[in-house]
Amino acid sequence: MNEATLALMIPIFSVTMPFLLAGGIVGFVTYFRYRRRREVQETIRIAIEKGQELPTEFLETISSPKNEPKPKKDQDLRRGVVLIAVGLGIAAFGFLVGEEDAARPLLGIGSIPFLIGSALTFLWILRTRHNQ
Prior knowledge:
single chain, 4 helices, about 85% helix
């Protein structure tokens, strides 16, 4: 491979690889969920063919949508504080780099988790005042 071909392949590879990786992860998770459902259905089919009765609780848990646990009352506060810390950390890194060309984009990137964290913390404050 000559240098020109390699110089052309590196940007193409660096742009396409994250998308391929994300697609691979989604495909991996989807495949294993499908496989688990198929195994449960096969187990039910075998039990019915053998004449075994299936408990009603078992059938209810399979047919009902997954019950997600209730969010904890302090979950918004925890997430908010963590996101604020992440945003401040990215902004501090931008200042520590020392170059203005790097500091401004890092401040912009750091402002996103900072503002989301601020909103979550504000929602937690509103919720606790409303519940009192």
